[in-house]
Task: structure prediction
Amino acid sequence: MRRIVVTGGSGQLATAIRHAAATSRNEYHIFGREEFDICDIRSIEHGIEGANVVINCAAYTDVEGAESNYEEAVRVNDDGVRMLAEACTKRNITLIHISTDYVFGGDTERRAPYTEADTAQPINAYGRSKLAGESHVVAMRQGIVVRTSWLYSPWGNNFCKKMLHLTSERDTLRVVNDQHGTPTSALSLARALVYAIDSNAIETMHGLYHYSDEGSCTWYDFAVEIARHNASGCTIAPCTSTDYPTKAKRPAYSVLDTRRIYAIDGIERRCWQEALTEVISLINSKI
Result:
């Protein structure tokens, strides 16, 4: 039986892992920042004691905030990951680190999903800090980086929950229609991670992997599908990114090629619409 330590315990992915691992034969220990701070070496050493695998879900995730607070983004997403990777290396612990599609630039003309071999060229501060953190894990003998995209869940703050709220309150809404990606349920990703560990697949895994639900869409498409589930009378209109200028640039295209991770026999494939149905059902049941 393995001891699995999960950081970022208050976040949506760590919460999803708690649910996905409920019937696992391994021991999963979910820690919030107050118990396991990846920016504090003493906290790291205490937190990983006795662990066989660490899943790092802790991150600075404020994409807009990273533009004006880059030092803090680097402190968590780069320096913190480096310290965690070094500590895991010393103790021969497998580290699974969660990263993002925002390490890619995604120009407006691109329509080919990004593979793990494609060159990462982030166009915002958040993406740069996450890419820097990846390098420390990839350099490990037992390091695994899983990039994911457009993560949402029944927990925390995310696009799905925001749209459910806004479409129930407003008559009209405008949503960006020129950014393409793949909505990914945190539950889908959590189940894939738990399966990879429980099936011993991680013993032959190393380096970069891309994980998302199947298919792609724009934020506008995603919002329309969310509103359909909500039986909302809200009219959603498409708009462009220039209609809603932000500090941080977003990739126009950041769809991930997931063939490498789905080559692991037993990892479930679901289209993003099917995964969304499950998440909204759980939200409506007030899980």
